[in-house]
């Protein structure tokens, strides 16, 4: 499998050099693998820190900036960052108002962020943590106790980031983040495996003519494999899985997410089918985002995330944001 | 090859339904295949119209909105739209100030936009046309007399769109668009073929372990095939090809573009190498954009576009834009 890389070992370092070159609003510590917004710490503001294994770009580094995250620490591909990175990030962004860790629910990430929280508290940083577990496909998985964290992370980081930007205190920002977690559900589908740089080939075998329903963002197995389905059939299955778990009482924010290898032309067609199903199920859609946001390297496939949004969440979603991958209103 | 589609025949129609559902700022005429910004025609403003074969998303439909294009007409995959679509688009956006057609240099597009210009003039719309031919890889190609139009189109549409938004008259908008064409050069590389829905398999054969240097955005052959190269070697080759043709007298706008199937993690690493080469060649970079903007379905690969930007072009590049795929300042 051909890749646009120098060496498998340098992939993350090279990408960080590229982030530094492309985004002067960010300070990228390539050696220590921490990306921080240039104007951090912002006086009086709660700091938002996230991170996780690389390979899901633009998550998380593409979400650093005004109105969203203050810092992230990328690990090796599909590997948790280490506590030292997280402590560096926390101390870099803490203005005295405290720091919120946004953690996707994978065992390594949860353990390392927990250790980092203790170390940061030792250095005088007040830390709150929210764990994102929005993927309804399976309970317990290859790297996870409980549900996996996937597309809902984008909604948590945007909405909590907006609240922090408005000056909300740490308990309020953390409370909103937890509300978004409780309000968000996702379901993903793989049409192909992804290719990891270290392996240089497919991460898992998916026979020609089959798809994996409920796949994780590291190629973790889902609920079942079936013969290939149409976009409409996939939308029926994915939306049903989500709505079996979440009956929205408010209009939803909809993320039609690409896993990295599926063309935008196809994602929009899939998005049309998701809208059709939501219409049939009487779920009004307040906002729609279509694109590659929470990816799995070059995996072909997609995921659907719904977040039921009351007026306050919708207002915070619409609030200005200025990051490499999400930008509006400023 | 598995695709996230309903049928090969419905791919473009389904994507247009998805655009309509996701973007309330746009009016999508699915039957006639025209996308128009909802507030068109904007009083006193020159209208910008583009279009071409589908399969290059977000180009062009993702660039419709305030500060960029007023309307686009997507053709079938890798197939020119027809004059009737272009005339509909032109008459929908003409406020009386005239319309600029932005046309990528492929024979079918050029002929059809020429015919459409005549038909629109018959209906009282003043039309100017700019043809984009920024790809330095080859002269004359499968579907092209002269050079192909690729990544430079994004710079033309953004900068001319900003000038039109400021109220510049048609001759000024067209003149700026031509200046951007003259100031822009691109070079593309394929690591894999793309898969067209109609064929359901690879569009061309690229042996394992080889890459195509100078590929077009429809899989057209480039300059040569070589054994697989590193990201650094590809950056050396691509930037050298561009700078052999363009010696910038001003800082450049840099587009590090993905062809659709290459992960963003790899694109950023490639962007770091492009910055390295430009530094070695003493070419200052004013702005960098990294992502999938001018794609070729699921092709793995990348392209580099430079646009030398004097102060006026840079100011217009930075001006507010609000489209599905490019958005800042508003």
From TrEMBL, chains A, B:
<comment type="subunit">
    <text>Homodimer. The dihydroxyacetone kinase complex is composed of a homodimer of DhaM, a homodimer of DhaK and the subunit DhaL.</text>
</comment>
<dbReference type="GO" id="GO:0019563">
    <property type="term" value="P:glycerol catabolic process"/>
</dbReference>
<dbReference type="InterPro" id="IPR004006">
    <property type="entry name" value="DhaK_dom"/>
</dbReference>
<dbReference type="GO" id="GO:0005829">
    <property type="term" value="C:cytosol"/>
</dbReference>
<keyword id="KW-0418">Kinase</keyword>
<dbReference type="InterPro" id="IPR012736">
    <property type="entry name" value="DhaK_1"/>
</dbReference>
<protein>
    <recommendedName>
        <fullName>phosphoenolpyruvate--glycerone phosphotransferase</fullName>
        <ecNumber>2.7.1.121</ecNumber>
    </recommendedName>
</protein>
<dbReference type="Pfam" id="PF02733">
    <property type="entry name" value="Dak1"/>
</dbReference>
<feature type="domain" description="DhaK">
    <location>
        <begin position="7"/>
        <end position="328"/>
    </location>
</feature>
<dbReference type="InterPro" id="IPR050861">
    <property type="entry name" value="Dihydroxyacetone_Kinase"/>
</dbReference>
<keyword id="KW-0319">Glycerol metabolism</keyword>
<keyword id="KW-0808">Transferase</keyword>
<comment type="pathway">
    <text>Polyol metabolism; glycerol degradation.</text>
</comment>
<dbReference type="GO" id="GO:0047324">
    <property type="term" value="F:phosphoenolpyruvate-glycerone phosphotransferase activity"/>
</dbReference>
<dbReference type="GO" id="GO:0004371">
    <property type="term" value="F:glycerone kinase activity"/>
</dbReference>
